[in-house]
Amino acid sequence: MKKLFSTGLVVVISLLMLVIYTSDASSPGKKYTTDSTETADPLLTWNEGQAKSSIISYVESISDPKNKNFIEPEDRIATFDNDGTLWSEKPFYFQLYFTLYTLDTLVKEKPELLKDELIKAAVDRDFKTLAKHGEHGLVKLALITHGNSTDEEFAEGVKRWLSETEHPTKNRKYNELIFQPMLELMDYLRNNDFKVFIVSGGGRDFMREFACETYGVPQYMTIGSSIKVKYNEETKKIQRLPEMEFIDDKAGKPAGIYKYIGKKPVFVAGNSDGDLQMMQYAQTNEKGYFNLLIHHTDSIREWAYDKESHVGKLDKALIEAGKNNWTVVDMEKDWKTVFPE
């Protein structure tokens, strides 16, 4: 695995962040959630501490009509990042695994594609050569594997990847590497009349194939990076095009929230500098806000990383959290468990 963290791969992953940031019937994530109506403790797998108490205190205050901080239900908008916030993201973003998997399948159908140095390098996992192709190469790979298909074909590809593959080191399905404490948090918010959205740099259509069953977030409440599509009048299908439309990362997140939701969030959860602008946007909400930052500190149960990481870098957002009194979750200390058991 040491080769995965070579300089070439660091460059590749950094570039991929500009381009692209599950529903397996045998292990649907929603079965792991804890309905807070069935227990006096809505956050069972959270250890007692500042993070847990601040969340509960906030939700109780904005839900009480007699409290000065009360927020009407229609304005209780919560936005969650996905990679590193709802599921893991190491050694690199899970959507890259899907991209490589899809490319492998594509090459089996069209072996002539291997004449292309870029595609051959990706299939061979030759990250040094991939890095040489720079951003243009990564854009090309993303569009080759995510475009040139119908919406139904793409959806089937995601489902097949989820059912056939496992994480290389955790030996679990990718949609099992979700955070149990965050599932409870989303349920807790929904039970208190929040509308819970995913706002992620990950591909919108990629996440739509597992977000509802895994997190309880409907497709229409899942916002992410996207490629262009068009309606084919002959086939009566949506055709995915090999062209980027929108990157839902960093400054793109507030833009996506404005475009697709139309209201500022009052609750935001993220884990990296890619979520900073979304949190800053929430700060301008005159109705108040709550920013929750997940700090990956658990090298035993998950991974420990922050400002030096090539994936999910957490530096500026952590500084801002300290300045603005945002709630920071220390994964090692604040969570009794990480993944569903």
Care to describe what's here?
This protein has 341 residues and is α/β, with parallel strands linked by helices. The protein contains 14 helices and eight strands. β6, α12 and β7 form a beta-alpha-beta unit. α1 crosses α6 and α3 packs across α6.
Number of helices: 14
Question: Judging from the principal axes of the Cα atoms, what is the shape?
Answer: globular
Share of residues in helices: 25-40%
The chain-level structural class is: alpha/beta
**Average pLDDT, to the nearest integer?**
89
SSE ordering: HHEHHHHEHHEHHEEHEHEHEH
The beta-strand count equals 8
The low-confidence parts are 1-32
Radius of gyration: 20 Å
Q: Roughly what fraction of the amino acids lie in strands?
A: 5-15%
Distance between the termini: 26 Å
Query: Looking across the biggest beta sheet, what order are the strands in?
Result: 2-5-4-3-1-6-7-8
User: What's the story with the biggest beta sheet?
Assistant: 8 strands, mixed
Oligomer kind:
single chain
What descriptive keywords fit this protein?
341 residues; alpha/beta; 8-stranded mixed sheet; globular
List the helices and strands and how they pair.
Blueprint (H helix, E strand, L loop, with lengths): L6 H10 L33 H14 L13 E4 L13 H16 L7 H7 L3 H6 L1 H13 L2 E2 H14 L15 H11 L4 E9 H5 L2 H5 L6 E11 L4 E10 L5 H9 L6 E4 L5 H8 L6 E6 L20 H9 L2 E4 H4 L7
Parallel strand pairs: 1-3, 1-6, 3-4, 6-7, 7-8
Antiparallel strand pairs: 2-5, 4-5
Helix pairs in contact: 1-6, 3-6
Quick rundown:
The chain is an alpha/beta fold.
